[in-house]
Structures are given as structure tokens and as C-alpha cells.
Amino acid sequence: xxxxxxxxxxxxxxxxxxxxxxxxxxxxxxAMDLLYTSKTFKILxxxxxxxxxxxxxxxxxxxxxxxxxMKRG
Length: 73
Description:
mainly alpha
């Protein structure tokens, strides 16, 4: 993984952690754990997915869909 890609992912992760903390009233550690253990983050880290080129809000929506699926199933 290139340094540029890693930087893009970490900047996006920072934004998403803030969104999670605000929307779900979680601590920073809880929000980071939720993001970094998600399927969404695995996809985000895969260079072939191209997900890291999307906006933080788009990826956050993707994560929220994953979380809704976890609640249902």
C-alpha cells in the first residue's frame, strides 16, 4: 500500500470516527474499534476497491449500512 493511500485512509478514518462518536454517543476508543474491525474498513484498505477515493460521508454511509445489517441479522 502506498504512503499516499495510507494517508488518505487514515484521514478518512479520523473523519468517520468523529461521525460515529457524534451519532452513536461512543467514546473515541469505541468508535475506533467499531470502524477498524468492520468489513467496511477491510474494503477501504483494499486498493482494488477504490473506496478510499470516495468521500468520508460516502464511506460512513457504507459503514452504517453494514451496522444496520448486523442489527437485523
